[in-house]
């Protein structure tokens, strides 16, 4: 088993990223087989960006991942741009992928909006770079959120077509992995929207860097309803905000929804919220302390990334050699 996961270096991490992805990553580094984690800086440049800000974001996100428990001695942690084989393989795969396949990608339609003709070629083609990101390492499993399933399908199609076109078993078609303890952490202000860094309201999310007081305040103000906490999960039907808070508690505690209901049934959210805030603080406050200690230590962060890139390149080079040879290059 070999897993590859990427994350865009764009600003603060939040509780959704933590419960939806990072918790699982931290577990995966102890599973047998290599676990590769990369910061997708080559993806970040598909849209307008400030160069200095991007560099700062890469370091900040690296510090946040290490603070969250990713160990650069166990996991292979690096930024994409320092492993040129990603871009090299992407070119080979551009010549295998079909324009019709890319035209079906719904995310490009969403991200380019009305100004499709004005979007960068990189934004259009980046699902092929994503395919290269995982095929480069013959990843067997890729953790994907719902929004990325279509891109993983594309990677599988590219792997199959490359092998068929060049009569070789060079690429493994990767399988999706179920996400972390909570697939969708919802906004604290609106139970029908995902918690996201792109939500303009900071009250909608818990950032990994929020102070204990800020966490308590955001949970206190989180939207709920006047009904008490039910004894059975069915009692949460149609109560998206209430269900979300219960599920966050369960995910942090590592238990199921029923166990939380058993503990709090009959109480109102006025009583539950302080317990939830304490539970979040207990998890995030040590992460924040480690992050604060590491975030300005550029030398340590860069050294971790460099080591990860060297290890990644060792795995990538034979795969590039095999693919170019198969293509007659
Ligand atoms: P955002 O939606 O804030 O821009 P990203 O798209 O950068 O976050 O996601 C990084 C990782 O975190 C992905 O694996 C994604 O599936 C996961 N993730 C993001 N938001 C949530 C959420 N609200 N609930 C669960 N997982 C999430
Ligand atoms: Na592992």
Automatic annotation (TrEMBL):
Keywords: Aminoacyl-tRNA synthetase, ATP-binding, Cytoplasm, Ligase, Nucleotide-binding, Protein biosynthesis
Chief location of this protein within or outside the cell: cytoplasm
Known EC number: 6.1.1.2
Record localization: Cytoplasm
Record-linked Gene3D superfamilies: HUPs, Tyrosyl-Transfer RNA Synthetase
Residues reported in the UniProt entry to bind L-tryptophan: 133
EC supergroup of this enzyme: ligase
Residue numbers covered by motif 'HIGH' region: 9-17
Listed GO CC annotations: cytosol
A GO molecular-function descriptor: ATP binding
Subunit note: Homodimer.
Protein name: Tryptophan--tRNA ligase
Source species: Flavisphingopyxis soli
Gene name of the record: trpS
